[in-house]
Amino acid sequence: MHAFRAKKPLHAAALRGLAVGASALVLASCAVGPNFSSPPAPDVARYTPEKLQSPGSDPAGPRVAGQRFVNGGDIPTRWWAAFRSAPLNELIRMSVERNPSLQSAEAAIKVANFNALAQRGLFFPQVGANYSPSRQLVSNDVSGPGNTTQSEYSLHTAQLNISFVPDVWGENIRNVESLDAITEQAQFQLEAAYLALTANVATAAIQEASLRGQIAATERIIKIERDILGILKNQFNAGQAAQVDVLAQEAALAQSEQTLPPLQKQLAIQRDLLTALAGQFSADAILQKFDLERLTLPANLPVTLPSTMVAQRPDVRAAEASLHSASALVGVAIAARLPNFLISANAGSTAFNFSQLFTPGTLFYTVAGSATQSVFDGFTLYHKQKAAEAALDQANALYRQTVITAFQNVADAVRSLQADARAVQAAIKAENAAKASLDIIQKQLVLGQVNQVIVLNAQQVYLNAAITRVQAVATRLSDTAALFLALGGGWPTDCPTSDWRSCVFESRVASK
């Protein structure tokens, strides 16, 4: 920006003329540089090369909950409610209300907005007032020839300083445009923080449920292995089993028990994570607990159109706002190379007594104007313009990369869900087969018809199958949450920034 400072005074009539002239200059100004327009939506009709197909499962395999992609559907505002978990709903509400990351994002919006408002102040004349009283004693040597007396007097000066920058080339217009875009970017970053927080809470809750399932499965295996150990000890006491079989079973039991503490540690750490996401200290643990049996797999999964997804994902919109800001800064750099106009003035009054300050004959004013143009600056301004243009190219590339990544996220989530149903089927089938095999072997062990090696293998196979089944179910739930995240969530466009929490959680929005 070019700064103007008033150094001399101005009369009322001259002030009016200056204001009219300045207004004419502003109205006649043109903003140099590129005029920004939003990038068009990619000319892409789908997320995968083939037509979107809902997740399928083997009709001959174990029955699993079905899911269906609804092409072109809208993401609900409270998408996490599709899991039908009251504890999850309450924990997300707590997190949105208390998490400092959202509060930081809200403060960032205010910072950007106030900076934009401050820049707008340069559209108006800058006015300052000054009052300077003084008491002076004149020396004999300068009071005049033959004058041997010193003169002492008071001097009061009051003046109004006025400065104005005519935005002839639109430099300030482009600066304001850039700062407005940064404010818009901060708003989309708030949406991104909200979406990331809700998705992180949902995913962390699913992971907690998975750990509880794995712990329960491990405890079932430990109970079975203890029962088998009891059988072998009875057989050993009766002379029907060797001591080596008893020792092998004790080792297998100890190995299974050894897997339990790491799972319990992970569960405790997961609880700490959920507590932190809820904006609470680790000592104030949350009350909500999560189990896989109490999380419902959403049946209908809306998959928005690609153009809608691009317009809805906050990271894409934030990248677009960054592109807008970079475009405006090119105009700022171009305007800095053009002639700079200066208008300055001041008006005031000087008198020996304060009471005489505004009497006739004490007023004074000065009006001045100038135009300056850099003749040679070592190509500094030229290279600053080229740097701004390169920054625009960079922002454009980052925007396109953000869009590509968004499509990749959706495609990954779709592919994962298409495979998850079959993975859960296979895991259930493997667990059922392993349990049936272990039950038969356990009965045969009572009759002394199998050796200990077969028993140990059956126990390990069942433990692995049970853990895998729990993880497969949890993965399907997590991938469902990942799809909602990839599609941009369901931020309501009619929510005011000042009270968006109430808007998000009120029943009217929840029904969308």
TrEMBL record:
Question: Which top-level group of life is the source organism from?
Answer: Bacteria
Which Pfam families does the record match to this protein? OEP (PF02321)
Disordered: annotated span: 39-64
What subcellular compartments does it reside in? Cell membrane
- Give UniProt keywords alphabetically: Lipoprotein, Membrane, Palmitate, Signal, Transmembrane, Transmembrane beta strand
Where does the secretion signal sit in this chain?
1-24
Q: How does it sit in the membrane?
A: Lipid-anchor
Give the matching PANTHER family.
BLR4455 PROTEIN, OUTER MEMBRANE CATION EFFLUX PROTEIN
Q: Which family does it belong to?
A: Belongs to the outer membrane factor (OMF) (TC 1.B.17) family.
**NCBIfam families annotated for this entry?**
outer_NodT
Entry protein name: Efflux transporter outer membrane subunit
Lineage of the source organism? Bacteria, Pseudomonadati, Pseudomonadota, Alphaproteobacteria, Hyphomicrobiales
